[in-house]
Every structure is written in C-alpha cells, then in structure tokens.
Amino acid sequence: MTVVTAEPAVSTDATAPTASTSSTEARAAREVYRDVLVELLGRDARHVCLDSDTGLFSGTAWGDAAPRYLNLGIAEQNLMGVAAGLARSGRIPFVNTMATFAATRALEAVKLDIAWNNLPVRIVATHGGLSAGHLGSTHHALEDLGVMRMLPNMTVLVPADGSATETLVRAGAELPGPVYLRLGRGATPDLAPGAEPVRIGRAQCLRRGTDVTLIATGPHPVLTAVETAGELARTGIDVAVLNMHTVKPLDREAVVEAATRTRGIVTVEEHWAAGGLGSAVAEVVADLGVACPVRRVAVADRFAAGTGGHRHLLARNGISGAAVTEHVRRLLA
I want to staple 164 with a disulfide (CB 3.0 to 4.6 A). Which of 159, 188, 250, 307 is the partner? Predict the structure, then answer.
C-alpha cells in the first residue's frame, strides 16, 4: 500500500451534488463563531466564554451574558484548568486561543484535566495551520490535528467555510464530551449551495467521481480540492471530492467507499504529513487490507520557515492544485 491522503469517493450517481465556490461571499470562520457564541450565551446560562486575550471579542455586546465572558490572559494551561473546573460544575465552557498554543503549550492540561475526565469543554482554536504565517513559524499550527485526534474522548472538527462553522459550533455545543474546533484566521468563500448538509462524523460529498477520490479538510485544502477536481474534469479525469470536516470520529464508511470504488485516494490538508487527516485515512485503508494507494498532499517533515501571507506559505509548502494534480496523474498512470 502506498500511503497518501484524500477524502472518500462515493457512488457514480450522475445526479449527485457538485459543489463550487461562491465568489459573492467570503467570511472569516472565527468571526462567524464569535457571533454564534454570543447568541448561545444569551440563550443558555450554562455557556461560558473563556478568552486568552485574543482580541476576538473586543467591543462585543454580551448583554446579560457579560459576566460569563472571562478574559484570563495569555495563560493557556490555566485557561484549560479553569475550563475543566467549570465543566465539572455543570457549565459548558468555550475556550478561545490560537491552535498552536492549545495543542502544545496547554497539552498536559487538555489531556489530563479535560480529555481524561471526558468533560464538555469546547476548545476553539483560531489561526490553524499556516494562517498565522505573518507571525512566523512559532505560530504555525501543523501538529494540532494529530495531537488532538490521539486523545481519547476528543471530537476534532475543521469547518471549511462560514456556514459549516455555524453548523458545527451549534452541533458541537450539544455533544457530551470535549471538542476541538480548528478555525483559520482570514476570510474564505462559502461553498456554493447544493452541497450535502454538514453533520458531525459524516464526510460531506462535494463531488462524485469514479477515478480518484480527494479527501480534504479545512478551508483552503477543500477549496483547492474542489477547484482542482473541476480542472481535471475538463481533461477527462473524473474525481470525487469529500470534505472531511470531522477528523475524529472519522467517517470510516466514506473512506471504505472511496477505497473500493475508485482507483486511489489523495488527501489534502494544512498539516504535517504525519499524524493528520492523511494518516487517519491511511490507517483505515490499512485496517481494511485493501490494495488502495493513499497519497498525501501536506506539509513535508520540516518546519515551515519564514513569514508571509497565508496563500504564499501554502504554495511554498506544497499545498496547491499542482501538487494534487500531480498525485492524481501518478495514481492513474
């Protein structure tokens, strides 16, 4: 088996949805999350917002919920411990910090205080992947999905657009255990109407195909997969696209479908190649014992040096349509 990443392919039904991107609307997922959270706090007194001086909530009108917004400063381990204590006391805390700090600096507290006790803490991690590239490699978060999906009891969610962010924040608020929600920084376009609804634990089919399946997670990887699939279609290559917004629990059925009905899987993610979506997909394929090649479009085993804009760093580190196309053509050669 060749290990590479992509979302599961599905049936060949010609009437199935084909998603494109909407050029009329671009929203920052973290701002969508903020607006939904204000509403949730206003409706349910159990909800609490714990901030780490992110600035996301500056000027927010909390209304009667204002006492339940607590800025604990840049002290991420303490933030997780306080969240665990509140959750143990019947509250449902939403913890806000940057992805790299949640997954590394505060990991011991996340593991022992939150995951071990299976507490309903929602860790909302902004600046995922390379989206904080303007701040340098100290703020890159290329390990967080691997770290969080290894923790027992943890649900790991990565919305691809503003609409999915709203859906997953609301649905995630109802789960009994801990949730890790990875968001980017800048605005990205919403996927056009017509896609299947987003449901936790179920891959969202964006395009049907019979040759290769692309499995992607996160705003830019999903957009890259959708756009590349459209370009390949014009050359006669029929590519399926799955949006794997739930990295854990992974939709194993969708992966099995892709592995058995198409000739290979290519995963696309804004993460190191080890441990993330590609690894999760390859584990399922290996468990099956199916002769399905899996190839990963991800950041290589090195630190992404330098500073720069988000798109610049993605292209520089191989998260591009060209990389996806190359893997697809190699699978079909």
Answer: 159
